[in-house]
Design brief:
Blueprint: E1 9-11, E2 20-25, H1 36-45, E3 49-53, E4 58-60, E5 63-65, H2 74-99, E6 106-111, H3 113-124, E7 131-135, E8 151-157, H4 165-177, E9 182-188, H5 196-208, H6 212-219, E10 226-230
Length: 246
């Protein structure tokens, strides 16, 4: 049976033309309402943004996914995510053209499977987005090259039993070796969820982190940094004053 893909949910800017484009992807076996907390935080922090929440291309109802096969093996998963990344990139380019927005004005965000597709899209399509927020994902494969025009923010629960945080550490370290611009934030006592502590830190990164491509032109390459904090204690969370420039 073929299920029609619903139209994306779109939130227009509070007034006038959009200054930024955010595209937010839900996880596997889910729907856009899974990421409403993140969308609300983005809308509050960036009132002039156009926020688009597409539905996964496959599945039905509230159990949609981004890849063509449910529960594939590891080898098949790599190719399926690559295919999904190509489709996502084409959809984003179309949005950018229609709304006169550049890649630098674009931020992509994804949770779980959605984040794996976002990473694939920005790595395979240079300049697609200036920022990518990657929440709690099982990455399909290590990138062969770091996206020079995209800052990657990895956000993960330290107690994630679905996508263990060690893989996020591995990807972050690999990106650093490639000379990529990436941050890793881990919230203790947080499992496989879009926890408010991770959402808060994502907004902090967007508002206060100077991309490496801008920083290097002035000061040279700084050292990479990993932040870990308790989700139960706001005082343990990095703040703008902690120097989030990597």
């Amino acid at each position: 049976m073929t299920h029609t893909r619903p139209e994306p949910l779109i939130i227009e800017p509070s007034a006038g033309a959009p200054a930024q484009l955010f595209v937010v992807l839900h996880g596997e076996s889910a729907a856009p309402d899974q990421v409403l907390g993140l969308v609300g935080a983005i809308r509050q922090a960036f009132p002039q943004a156009l926020i688009v929440q597409p539905h996964g291309r496959f599945g039905a109802g509230a159990a949609r996914r981004w890849i063509a096969q449910a529960e594939p093996d590891a080898e098949a998963y790599v190719g399926l995510v690559a295919d999904a990344g190509t489709v996502l990139a084409a959809e984003i380019r179309s949005l950018q053209q229609a709304r006169s927005l550049s890649g630098e004005q674009t931020a992509l965000a994804g949770f779980s499977e959605g984040a794996a597709v976002v990473l694939e899209a920005v790595c395979a399509h240079p300049g697609l987005a200036g920022r990518a927020l990657l929440f709690s994902t099982r990455f399909a494969t290590l990138p062969q090259a770091a996206p020079a025009q995209t800052t990657l923010h990895l956000l993960h629960g330290a107690a994630d039993g679905v996508a263990p945080v060690d893989q996020a550490r591995q990807v972050h370290g690999h990106l650093a070796e490639l000379g990529g611009d990436a941050t890793l934030d881990m919230a203790s006592h947080v499992g496989h969820e879009l926890h408010e502590a991770l959402v808060r830190q994502a907004i902090t990164r967007l508002q206060n982190y100077l991309p490496l491509r801008s920083w290097e032109s002035v000061m040279g390459a700084p050292a990479a940094r990993v932040d870990e904090y308790s989700a139960d204690d706001d005082s343990g969370k990095p703040s703008a004053e902690d120097g989030t420039l990597h």
